[in-house]
Amino acid sequence: MTTLAADREIESLMSLHPKGFDLSLDRISRLLERLGNPQDHLPPVIHIAGTNGKGSCAAFSRALLEASGHRVHVHTSPHLVNWHERYRLAADGGGRLVGDKIFADAIARVAKANEGQKITVFEILTAVTFLLFSEHPADAVIIEVGLGGRFDATNVITEPAVSVIMPVSLDHESFLGDRVELIAAEKAGIIKRGCPVVIGAQESETALQVLIETAERLDCPAFVYGQDFLAFEENGRMVYQDEDGLMDLSPPRLPGRHQFANAAAAIAAVKAAGFEISHRVADKAMANVAWPGRMQKLPQGRLTELAPKGADIWLDGGHNPGAGVVVAEALAEQEEKNPRPLFLISGMINTKDQSGYFSAFKGLVRHVYTVPVSLSEASVPNDELAVRAVEAGLSAEPVSSVANALMLLRDTWDGPPPRILISGSLYLAGAVLAENGTPPV
């Protein structure tokens, strides 16, 4: 396979700079100043933080704005298959992933401006975001936080059109703290004085209180899920409600009841950012929204051909206990509507709470096949991961790969066509999409 020019530039950066996170804004600010501070020359910015739901909120926000006819830049992370997925440039009729030549050129210019100074690859690629988005016309920009909020490299935006805090729960404890209120305080770091804030549905009252208090202290207009806006299901439809009234909408194309709250946060955010959202636009956005690797029905491809005939195969990159809960709830909803035996194929990395993730599926999953995550050096060995699943009360066995798990299930299962969830890691989700021949576009 031909190596893309941008990939070669990134590989060169990784040989010179550390791969991980070094939470500080000093280096990124210095670099951006050398580039002319492109982050200060952007259209209205929707800046999104949170433990779970950031990507879904970004996807819904993009769908809403594009359904209104707006041109939108979108930055998300991490990518699944190609680095290019992190940068979607505005275009008539819908944004497109950045072209390889444009991307490679931007990386080279940012690396040159850095002049070999100490910096992380993530910071360089964040500077690339601002450079690209400042040089191409758009009506709005959606930027997803990479890690935390306060010291994330994206947090150099001084006046966002709106800051959005999606559900906060435990994750990345070694960086952000081991209590939910500490993590909420880090996420709240993207809130800027006087700028609107949308607070998505929070499971933790403690986290919610931290977020509300931060918004009040900084004199921010705040819109809180359950108080100022909400969404609920009624007769198979999604009803969105805020101070402007009700909208009776098509249910979100992204499966799971949790997506009603994610969609509501996006509607509130886009409106808080100053854009009008009509009933027609919102309905169109709910029907068209797409977010690869998050409760995505796996398209036909090389891997799906190995599964039991008629199998219903889903892919999800969620990797913490909070994600496990919402995915398990989504699968339980499907079980109510269309009962099928459920099997789980899972790979995880060692910085995640594996038993906590698996515990959400107790009583729902027939059997778990644990696999290594080939794209990550932090992969939990498949035999060790099987032990974690058993500790969570599940039946489990280690298998060498997703392909072998699908073939094993095909050869041993003699019941009705099963439902299969491949999950536990975004690295795994990316590897599956690549092997299946169906990368994001």
UniProtKB/TrEMBL annotation:
Pfam families attached to this UniProt entry: Mur_ligase_M
A single Gene Ontology CC term: cytoplasm
Superkingdom of the organism of origin: Bacteria
PROSITE patterns found in the cross-reference section: FOLYLPOLYGLU_SYNT_2 (PS01012)
Keywords: ATP-binding, Ligase, Magnesium, Metal-binding, Nucleotide-binding
Cofactor: Mg(2+)
SUPFAM superfamilies from the UniProt entry: MurD-like peptide ligases, catalytic domain, MurD-like peptide ligases, peptide-binding domain
Recorded catalytic activity of this chain's protein: (6S)-5,6,7,8-tetrahydrofolyl-(gamma-L-Glu)(n) + L-glutamate + ATP = (6S)-5,6,7,8-tetrahydrofolyl-(gamma-L-Glu)(n+1) + ADP + phosphate + H(+)
Family listed: Belongs to the folylpolyglutamate synthase family.
Record PANTHER family: DIHYDROFOLATE SYNTHETASE-RELATED, FOLYLPOLYGLUTAMATE SYNTHASE-RELATED
UniProt name for this protein: tetrahydrofolate synthase
Source organism per UniProt: Mesorhizobium mediterraneum
